Prior knowledge:
CATH architecture of the domain at 5-179 and 410-420: 2-Layer Sandwich
Strand order of the largest sheet: 3-2-1-9-10
Number of helices: 14
Structural class: alpha+beta
Distance between the termini: 26 Å
Helix content: 25-40%
CATH topology of the domain at 5-179 and 410-420: Nucleotidyltransferase, domain 5
CATH class of the domain at 5-179 and 410-420: Alpha Beta
Amino acid sequence: MEKKDNIKTLDPSNISCGLDFGTSNSVISVTDLSTGEELFTSSLQSILYFPASDAELCYVGKEAEEKYVEEQMKGRLLKSVKTLLKQDKFLFTWINGKKITPDRMASYIIRKLKDSAEAFLGFEIEKVILGRPAIFSEKEEEETTAVKRLLTATHNAGFKEVHLQLEPIAAAFSYEQRLTRESLVLVADFGGGTSDFSIVRLSPEKLHVKDRSNDILAHGGLYIGGDMFDSEIMWYKVTPLLGRGVKYKSYDKYIEVPNTLYRELRNWERSFLLKDSSARRMLDKYYVFSDYNSHINNAMQLIDNNYVYSLFKEIERSKIALSEHPVTELCFQNQHMAIRESITFGEYEEVINSHVSRIKEYIETMMEESGYECSSIDSVYLTGGSSLSKPIKNVFNDMFGAERVHCGDTFHSVAHGLSLTRI
């Protein structure tokens, strides 16, 4: 976003900054509350790259991905940092001889966004409205740990005053800008790690009202997101091409290769641990005693050459394609290995069915417990990257009618809504 001439005349006390720290993408938004105009927004992928060549460097976002590929994937690439915040048993990881904690990982991303906004405005931003999911974890200890780490990361990134706001509520405030009359709205925010929901009474006449607590009629969420859908595609469609189900000869009988390694491959953020694992060393044995099965060789090449991230990018691309096409081809090929597999929309719908069913059941329960029927909801507002998934859209179309279902700015609406929050 280009810098405007009137930026230098702005009163910093009228500036409101919203920050949406997401599993896949993070966004910052700056709004002038005196006019309601959004002045600046910037987004980046929530990934970090620590090059092996320099212990002091950490690249963030698109630059992290580019450097990772440029340096032939020799350093450490971290994705889905937000999911690490709730893992209370995960205290730190060693990177280039240094202990890197989950909150420090998050602070790199938050600091990058803060710097970009301040460079645009020309002055320091001290206060921020920080988004948080309706639920980080169903376990109370993990929930507490996640919130504490997120706050620590934001303070360490340089913000002096931090106010938390639920992400689906923030998305509701963004949607409110479109309305011409009072409406009862179900907001569904689908991210990479969580699915959050709220029922909110919205009105264009309340845009400048500070306390909106009475308008928030229900909220909640599930630890289900787009990364989980990618994981299911990996398990059902890709791991058989990496040796899952292959049998190897042990003495006078044939035994199926254990699933331990393949279960780990479902979680991209843990895949870096496989390279020096006993499970990887056993692949050498399975390869020989399976008569040099090419699928097991695929797994060895995938792990040894740090291709897991690139493979998941192709899985994600295929998933997105299935929102518009009945079939797509997952194609991952390089000098060491080749994977090619067709995926139909029906197959995709089947492998994520249990998660989609949980989402539907949760919404039904939420509606019932809050005393509302589907017919009483004026509109449904879908936002977040995973809201683009066709099976997700179908749930809301079936429950509320397609004419009442609206989609927002996929990645930006939460951050914008946060910047509209009055504190």
